[in-house]
Amino acid sequence: MPVTVLDMQPQKVPSSIEIMAQTEGARETEVRARVGGILTKRLYQEGETVKAGQPLFQIDRSPYEIALAEAKAKAEQTAREVGRLKGLAEAKAIAQKDYDDAVSANAMAQAALHQAELNLSWTTVTAPVAGTTGRAIKSDGNLISTGDSLLTSIYQTNPIWVRFSLGESDLAKFPSGRISTKDVKGVELVMANGQKYEKPGKVNFLATNIDTTLGTQALRAEFDNAGGQLLPGQFVRVRLLTGERDGVYLVPQSAVLQTEQGTLVMTAGPENKVAPRPVKAGEWYGKDWVILGGLNAGDKVIVDNLIKLRPGMPVDPHPPVVPGAEQAGRKPQEVAGKSGTSATTRTQQ
After folding, report:
1. Does one domain contain both 230 and 253?
2. What is the reported pTM?
3. Could you tell me if 232 and 192 lie in one domain?
4. Are 225 and 256 in the same domain?
5. Domain extent at residue 202
6. 285-305 pLDDT per residue, tens
């Protein structure tokens, strides 16, 4: 049976770990009302980017304008009273206690005036930070109370954060049984469509403890997202680059067999007979498995017709077809041999 074989040679490849992860805004801020009342108007378009301090909602101002007017009148009255009693107190015409009580009443009135001014200003709900707005939780006409005052949320998406955790099998690859910042040489992001995100990231948080419930170590990476390509809540894959592996072999994923006895590859032996070979597989590197052990330089690993093969079966191995060969599916040696024969024949003629 003709089979395609790859001649194994040791290589140096980057070592990495891929983990499922989820994106989140670098800052997720809840926008809440500080005063209660009827929500009269939404002042922003849901989903748009806003600046810090930009008005988002308007609560009915009328009750707070009235309260401010009352507080202002009370503060003016107490201020006049203090001014009237000050001269009498200096002339010892009244008890000092009466003057002190007037001063205290004026201080409380001025504080109430300041609070009334704040309450009126808080009827316009502004963005506490810059970012992308979410949907409005409350619509126009709703009664807003300070106990249930969540109106919307703002997400800062540049930079964007990616949360993930390493399980026991991944942590076991490190000498100390846990990952540290010195173990991470780089961070890459793989999108849901399998494409690598163009900008590299960095780890900005690494838990110093292991979760006792899940047995995992939590990490977080940060990526530049100036173009807005990543959105909070996306499921992605994070690739942690942990260094390089030297002296390993790359075998196509389709040529690595998972059996009850373990991981195997099929090789063509010295007599061109099928010989199963147990191997130790590492992580994926592109479309290949990284084989850490079980292969030697010069081994010929069979990459096709695997279902039809049996141990000891004689095979006719040939290297992969050279792209652009004149006859697709023919072995390069056959194509070259036939060309050489034709040339010889023409020479003899």
Report:
1. no
2. 0.59
3. yes
4. no
5. 14-25+157-245
6. 778 888 988 999 999 999 998
CATH number of the structural domain spanning residue 235? 2.40.30.170
What is the DSSP pairing of strand 150-166 with strand 217-223?
Answer: antiparallel
Let me know whether 164 and 21 are in one domain.
yes
pLDDT in tens, 319-339: 888 665 544 444 444 444 444
